[in-house]
Amino acid sequence: MQTRKIFLLIQVAILKFAYANELAPQEEITLCNEGEDVYFSCPLDNGKVISVCAKNNLNPKQGYVKYKYGAGRDIFVYPKNGIPPNKILKLSDVSEGSIRGLHLKFENGPYTYVVSSVWPGQLYVLKNKKIVFDKQCQASKYKSFSNKIFDGVNQAPPSEVDVH
Predict the structure, then answer these.
(1) Which of 48, 82, 110, 143 is the most exposed place for a label (fewest CB within 10 A)?
(2) Left (φ > 0), alpha (ψ -120 to 50) or beta: where does 61 sit?
(3) Any bridge partners for residue 57, and if so which?
(4) Which value, to the nearest 10 degrees, does the dihedral of the CA atoms of residues 45, 51, 101, 24 take?
(5) Phi, psi (rounded to 5 degrees) for 17
């Protein structure tokens, strides 16, 4: 009888452990550094990661917001310096009907980068108004923009780069 109780207790412990691990939040995949707020991050279907990271960004003229793309040691960061986002980044609400989403946009030379939170999330890049790069987030890793982005980045109406 004592052996049966021990066996049942072990089974219950194993089931609790398995259930807890199944419901545990997945570790976030991000290029943001410790101490930075993660405004958006997801692995793309090409094995790279896109992240939008911020620090001390309480309004568009304070702190910084950085776009990061890559994997391992090969990471593109824009802007390189921690400058306030008020003149370089724009946030547009592209929600339509039951589809909800935001686009974070910036220009770098002839390129326009658009990080989209429209499910499953996406990054597309235009060069001289033509799409030259278009990758989606892995759907199982989807994460929408943090609400903190509304305080830290200027909002702008959708434009022609939002139609994709």
Answers:
(1) 110
(2) alpha
(3) none
(4) 80
(5) -65, -45
Task: Confirm if 84 and 47 have CB atoms less than 8 A apart.
Answer: no
Report the predicted TM-score, pTM, of the whole model to 2 decimal places: 0.80
**Quick count: other Cβ atoms within 10 Å of Cβ 108?**
13
Which among 88, 84, 164 is positioned nearest to 130, based on CA atoms?
A: 164
120 contacts 136 by C-beta, under 8 angstroms:
yes
Which H or E run contains 43? strand 37-43
120 in Cβ contact with 112 (< 8 Å):
no
For residue 119, CA distances in Å to 35, 100, 108, 141, 151 come to 27, 8, 25, 11, 22
- 95 vs 145: CA distance, rounded Å: 13
Residue 9 DSSP one-character state:
H
Contacts of 118 (CB under 8 A, 6+ apart): 94, 99, 100, 101, 103
Tens-digit pLDDT profile for residues 95-119? 988 888 999 999 999 999 999 999 9
Residue 30: pLDDT band with limits 50, 70, 90: very high
